[in-house]
Amino acid sequence: SDYSREPPRHPSLKINAKEPFNAEPPRAALISSYVTSVDHFYKRNHGPIPIVEDIDRYSVTITGLVEKPKDIFMKDVWSLPKYTVPATLQCAGNRRTAMSKTRKVKGVGWDIAAIGNAVWSGAKLTDVLEYIGIPKLTSVTPLGGKHVEFVSIDKCKEENGGPYKASIPLIQATNPVADVLLAYEMNGEPLNRDHGYPLRVIVPGVIGARSVKWLDSINIIAEECQGFFMQKDYKMFPPSVDWDNINWSTRKPQMDFPVQCAICSLEDINLIKHGKIIIKGYAVSGGGRGIERVDVSIDGGKTWLEASRYQKPGIPYIADDASSDKWAWVFFEAEAEVPQTAEIVAKAVDTAANVQPENVEVIWNLRGILNTSWHRVHVRVGH
Ligand code: MTE
Ligand code: MO
Fold it and tell me: Which residue intervals define the domain Moybdenum cofactor oxidoreductase dimerisation in the entry (predicted)?
């Protein structure tokens, strides 16, 4: 592993681990824009950032259960219809630090900003697969339990120096409605090295771990990928399972992320001069489910008021409406006058009426993933 040629990064990022580089923006920066700037987008890596020097010779091999394996080059990807999908990427480890406070968990510590919303452009995976002879999803397609595996060119210690990999079901990969992309642009610019230059996968509505960066090959396989990050990581275990009694094979790899929200306009503890506060943050759910509601409280959850929600300023957000970005987060905002001290809480409800758990204890898991418990911050008015 070699960290001598890492790309430059924005100085405001909070570094949670240096090698591999893992960093998130400050809370306030995260909600300064609906589309997260590349600079402020969290960076989650498991090895050194690869360098692709010769874009003309870079290719992705598509192999496995296909009639004829094929190498596709960037010119082939560029020749396919270009799709642009606004989608929120969230690391399953987002908010892990808070989970670790009740009982220690293993993994990189993250505050609430291991999440970002970008406008991704590239070819649809369905078009790429069709290009090599795998048809788009129809009701008669025999899919079995097949998966589409994405393999990177990076080197991860968890894979004993091998590449990062992950897979998604073929039924999702061949479904145009799932909007899975082989993306070459982020916010209208070519991907930068940190985010997967020259080509990465974007699986909207699914934990970030399945959106493989620096794509090297795509394999059609009979069952899900057997790599470390599918089989020995990113699985949700019950609170009763710890490192001495874990049996990894008893759980499925996590795919969709659950409903989540967090307050970004306030830090964990705030000393403020006057009682008027703005409670602003993001809410998002997995699987393309919209945000039905965000409730906020200034008394630790005894009483609630509903926050306003929007994606684009001035345009009211309507969940699951054609006017809203289906795979993207929603900002919420409420104003409140707080007494001397207050515990501010936010919780979201998605369009399937899924809610966030009140306490982190009930969803504690040894790897510290999917902390979606009510987000709480503390305010004290004084001088
Ligand atoms: N792809 C490769 N090749 N290597 C990685 O370490 N990390 C994954 C995913 N894809 C990873 C990867 C994880 S866990 C997340 S959350 C997202 O990339 C982070 O994407 P970002 O760094 O662009 O924010
Ligand atoms: Mo992640």
Answer: 252-381
User: Residues lining ligand 1, CB < 6 A?
Assistant: 41-46, 89, 91, 152, 154, 164, 195, 208-209, 211-214
The DSSP code sequence of 284-299 is E-STT--EEEEEEESS
Q: Which atom number of ligand 1 is nearest to the Cα of residue 92?
A: 16
Domain 260-381 - what CATH class? mainly beta
CATH 3.90.420.10 domain residues, the chain: 14-250
Q: How far is the CA of 212 from the centre of ligand 1 (A)?
A: 6
> Dihedral angle at the C-alpha atoms of 205, 182, 236, 145, nearest 10 degrees?
100
CATH of domain 14-250: 3.90.420.10
Instruction: For residue 169, give the 3-state DSSP assignment.
Output: strand
Short-list 322, 371, 378, 373, CA closest to 347: 373
At 115-160, the pLDDT tens digits run: 999 999 999 999 999 999 998 987 777 778 899 999 999 999 999 9
- pTM of the predicted protein model: 0.97
